[in-house]
Amino acid sequence: MRRRPHFLFTNLILKVIIKLEHLNNCSNEQLLNGYGGIQMGRDFDKCDVLSINHDAVNRVRTEMLDDDTVRDMADIFKVLGDPNRVKIIHCLAREELCVCNLAQLLRMSISAVSHQLRALRDRRLVKYRRDGKIVYYSLDDAHIVTLFKQCLDHIKHD
Prior knowledge:
By secondary structure, the chain is mostly helical. It has 2 domains: 1-41, no CATH class; 68-156, Winged helix-like DNA-binding domain superfamily/Winged helix DNA-binding domain (Arc Repressor Mutant, subunit A, Orthogonal Bundle). 59% of the residues lie in helices and 9% in strands. The chain has helices at 5-24, 28-32, 54-61, 67-79, 83-94, 99-106, 110-122, 142-156; strands spanning 97-98, 126-131, 134-139. It has a 3-stranded antiparallel β-sheet. Helix 6 (99-106) packs across helix 7 (110-122). The chain is elongated, with a radius of gyration of 26 Å. The termini are far apart.
């Protein structure tokens, strides 16, 4: 006899509820040590016991960034996560360049460079100015150069 899908789903839910009840009866220390049917490896980057320093948590909590700022910062790092955009920032940190020059330097099409510049411009990392028929790009401000140099220093740091 073939089981019906709703019977299988109900059976799965019951198993989950039983497991959750079992885990509820385990202490935090037991859970951290792998009891209750949960296998937790001893990783070097995790505490072996649950120990919360409420003073430290409260001090840091007062300095937490608001969600909009965090989202904007994450967007900047996301945009800089593309190697071609990093190359563009590197070039523009040295000199103001037009799209054609960037395309030549990066061995990319003008269209591809323009697409990357648009993403950088949307995050206010680069700005442009038009001189007749030529559009020149430069970094938006000194903060971008500082961010780029600090990242480079971090990578080269032993």
